[in-house]
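Researcher: Good morning. I'm working through a list of sequences from a screen, and I'd like to move beyond sequence-only analysis. For each chain I'm collecting a predicted structure so we can compare shapes side by side. This is the next one on the list. No need for commentary yet; just the structure.
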Amino acid sequence: MTSWKLTALAPRPVIEAALLAHEDAWDWDPDIVISGSEIAEDKPDDWQLEAWLPRKPTKADKAAVLALFSGTPPKLAIEQLPKTDWLTASQQGLEPIRAGVFHVHTPEHPPLAAPGLRDFCIPASQAFGTGQHATTAGCLAMLTHMKRQGVVVKNCADIGTGTGLLAFAALHLWPRALATASDIDAVCVGVVQDNAVSNAVPLGARAGELTMLVADGMEHPLLAARGPYDLIIANILAGPLIGLAPDFARHMVPGGHLLLAGLLETQEAQVRRAARRAGLRLAARLVNGDWSILWLRKRAGRPGQAPDWAKRW
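Model: Good morning. Structure tokens for this chain:
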């Protein structure tokens, strides 16, 4: 497949505004993949917006990207890319990360095998979530914090699991839990199964085992049948998190926990408003780079009565 890339250079606030506009573009062509990043570590205010396409960009494609910018848009640089699996190539040689009680590395790096530390080997693949991204690392840190705060999980679901890493982490922290992982992308099924085998994570439908399925959000009969959940993890994007907030709450037990990531700090207020409307309240948050990681809980008890957990925050 021939791939092409469009690149626009602009100050960071301009690129971030374009990314937010992309989040709100519900009719966006899914073949056009968008990302924003700083150009260099020593130039934190100079950013680029990149758009990848599986075809030569048409006038309509270029117009769609430029429409993300308000006012006078920046110029677009257009280049044809070599025939490469860019997702896999972009993850090659990634450095290991430490987050909470977890050490995540690719096969190019050895495990640490340190006491009290759980090693996960996640190769570069066709799915997101090797652990190096700030949202994934932040979720690993927050899961560890939740465990240390005394959270008990008997039934958990990882929505938009990618490589399965966060589901694996939850099963490590709560090894007797019933665990379900899902993703909208069918390619993740094989990725998760391979990673589970290589990391000694048991697969199956019983407590302490992981069940993997393909689902759009919470729309799957097995997800409904295996609920309600006392922990739901969703490291996806701000737009879907806002839309799925009522579904998450509906499939949680009273007092249950929801871990959200994939949202920029600038998008946090919107996500939290949607969560509040669904009856979810913030328990803790952390910011990793530009990204917010939110721990929320579902209201418990009689209406108007604050549960015990809320009184501690």
